[in-house]
Amino acid sequence: MKQRFTTIALATALVAGAGWWVAGTGTAPTETGQAMTLPGAANAQEAASGEAADATIQEMVLGAEDAPVEMIEYASYTCPHCATFHDGVFEDIKRDYIDTGKVKFTYREVYFDKYGLWGSLVARCGGEDRFFGITDMIYDTQDTWSRAGSEAAIAEELRKIGRIAGLEGDQLEACLSNNEKARGLIEWYQVNAEEHGITSTPSFVIDGETYSNMSYDEFRDILDEKLGS
Fold it and tell me: Which of 2, 122, 151, 210 is deepest in the core (most CB within 10 A)?
């Protein structure tokens, strides 16, 4: 089944969760309002003694900035349907529309659980240049890392993906202990979900209209209509 959530419940959880937030504890509010421990939290105090952590949220984009059609995907790294989409339909859309300059594609994360947030912190750790490559690796190995067992095992599998992608150990730990970035991502996701009425993943916003998951042929019909083809 698609993963679903309600933005009202999420907003309530964020308010409740904010009371759990203490700088330097390595915890962040989850969708349920419970405290979330970041896997790099053991190094949070050391990181806090250095330069301030970067909490800027960058949009992750593929395609021409001036493409005539804009497509936004909302997805969770722990969502099986999202992994299936990226392994199939997305590759076709990328080939036919993104790489040809017809569609500007933006990927926005949805957080159902701590593991999806951890995956996001790893994917974003390499910046925009490595983000989509790491995202592909996370989805390709979703069955492995998401079922690794304990929280420590899952975190280590995600670290392994980061290392394969060329991230250094210290760099990964800094990203996985970045409390401000984690909080910023959760708040950013809530605002985006409210704006576009996102209730399940994967969901898509094409030139301002929200759609649920669909086949490539259905995407093609919508995109061609938007393009006037």
Answer: 122
